[in-house]
Each structure stands twice: as C-alpha cells, then as structure tokens.
Design goal:
The chain contains one helix and 20 strands. The chain is an all-beta fold. The strands form four sheets. An eight-stranded parallel beta sheet has the order 1-4-7-9-11-13-15-18. Strands 3, 6, 8, 10, 12, 14, 16 and 17 form an eight-stranded parallel beta sheet that branches. It is elongated and about 75 Å long.
C-alpha cells in the first residue's frame, strides 16, 4: 500500500514477496519502482490528485506479477525500470479517461472506458476496447478487438530524401513513410508553398 501521503514523492519496493494486491494512492513522475518483486494479486494505480504516478517495473517483477496492473484515478505512466531493458506486463486494465502512457510492452490490454489520452510507446499484443479509444505514441498494436472503435494517431511522417536539386522542367519522386505503421489514417497530402517555383501532384 503506497499511501496518498507520499504525494508526488518516490517509493521503491525491492525483493518483496507480496501475497495479495498492491494499492498505489501516492507517488509522482519518478515514483513507484518495483524491483525483483513477486506479487500474487493486482496492482491498482488509484492516485486522484497531483501529477500522474509512474509505475516502473523490472523484468523480474513483470514476470512474477500474477495479476493485472489496473489504472484508475488520474491515470499513470507504466515504464521500464531500466532504459536498457524492456519489461512485458501480462495484463493491463485501464479504467479511467485520464492520460495513461505505456512505455513497457503488454501482452493483453483492456480499456473499459472511453479514452482519448492513451499513449503506447511499447508493443501491445492485444488491445481490447470496450469504448472508443484514441491511441497516440510510436508503439505497435498487433491485434485490436472489442466493441469500441480504436483510432491510432499518426506520430510522424518521414521522407526518403531530405534534400533534392531540380533543374527546370525536371521532376523527382518522394516517398513518405507514416509512423506508426498501424496508424488509422496513413493518407498524405502533398502541396507546394510556392507553385511558381515547383508544383506537386499526389502520385
């Protein structure tokens, strides 16, 4: 139990065997760190005021977590403890419309309420949306399911050439790549800011 009196502070749980659930009601953006912990129940992110709480997992804790990570309250950040490693959470349940950012990988994610503020930067094997969800970030969703509509926002567009030199009456083809690859709308509209110098078409 991480008490709300922790506010935006930091708490680290190391080498702990926890029988039952963990309730996180306090903590900040660098906040609750799970290192080599075994947890038989769920982890509930239930902070309701201040900045979003960050839950940071190492690979051992992610593997030994028997239950789900349940995000409620004012949202949460689900992160890898170490930059060089990637934890894979088995089950994440989002029960809030507040911003939720998932940098870790997730096997199974369920969103039970409408949310336009879900950011995925890792890989989600299956995302079940019970209500309409908008996904931001540069992560990947392998399977989408559920009764809600899942819209994946465009994170960026890159070109195959950063610079070209054209002589008069010549042409060049540019290829645009939209990220992430599973964005809902991958359409690109081309235009010129000075058609007296150069014109473009959509082909």
């Amino acid at each position: 139990y991480i008490d709300k009196k922790v506010e935006d502070g930091t708490a680290t749980l190391t080498n702990m065997n926890i029988s039952g659930d963990v309730y996180v009601k306090g903590g900040g953006g660098n906040s609750v760190v799970f290192e080599n912990c075994s947890i038989s129940g769920n982890i509930y992110a239930q902070k309701t005021s201040g900045e979003k709480v960050a839950l940071k997992f190492d690979e051992n804790t992610a593997n030994k977590l028997k239950g789900s990570v349940v995000v409620e309250g004012n949202g949460a950040l689900l992160e890898n403890k170490d930059a060089g490693s990637t934890a894979t959470l088995k089950k994440v349940v989002v029960k809030t419309e507040k911003p939720v950012t998932v940098d870790a990988n997730v096997t199974d994610m369920q969103v039970t309420t409408a949310n336009e503020n879900l950011t995925v930067n890792g890989t989600v094997d299956k995302l079940q949306a019970d209500k309409d969800v908008t996904v931001n970030g540069n992560g990947r969703i392998n399977e989408k399911t559920g009764n809600g509509q899942i819209s994946v926002s465009v994170a960026g567009v890159s070109l195959d050439k950063t610079e070209i030199v054209l002589v008069e009456d010549s042409n060049e083809k540019l290829t645009a790549t939209v990220e992430p690859t599973n964005a809902t709308n991958k359409g690109v509209t081309w235009s010129s800011d000075n058609e007296a110098v150069a014109t473009v078409d959509q082909h």
